[in-house]
Amino acid sequence: MNDVMRQTTRLTNVARDLPAQMAEREGVLPVWVRAPKRGHEFYSGCSRPKLYEWAGKNYIRSVSIREPGRIKGVRLFHLASILAFIEECEKESKAALN
User: Fold this and answer.
1) How many distinct structural domains can be found in the chain?
2) In principle, which of 9, 76, 85, 93 could form an S-S bond with 32, CB 3.0–4.6 Å?
3) What is the reported pTM?
4) Helices in the chain by DSSP H: which ranges?
5) Looking at residue 72, what DSSP letter applies?
6) Nearest-angstrom CA–CA distance, 36 and 73
7) SS3 91
């Protein structure tokens, strides 16, 4: 199994388990999320490098917020675009199998 299929399979599993995770959480989903320092992002299950890779390829929305004159800031990722991208990958993998 190549890396793309392995990643797609893992993301499909994460997307499938997402409703159960959401049922455990009260309230609405956040609009923007930060990349985790280590491990996987809570809502999508994606790693920090994968989020940066997808943002760099414009697969998902991302924004860097810095105060004027500062070198460091914070990068935020649009959760809805992450989840939409995962669903799109799932549809493509299903279409490829048929």
Assistant:
1) 1
2) 76
3) 0.69
4) 3-24, 48-56, 79-97
5) -
6) 15
7) helix
The candidate with the shortest Cα–Cα distance to 18, out of 59, 79, 63, 76, is 79
In three-state secondary structure terms, 46 is: coil
Residue 25 and residue 15: Cα distance in Å, rounded? Answer: 16
**Residue 60 forms beta bridges with which residues?**
none
In this structure, what token pair is assigned to residue 25? 């959480």
- Asked if residue 1 lies in contact with residue 82, where contact means CB atoms within 8 angstroms, the answer is no
**33: which strand partners?**
77
SS3 label, residue 74:
strand
Domain that holds residue 12: 3-97
Residue 87: what residue type? E
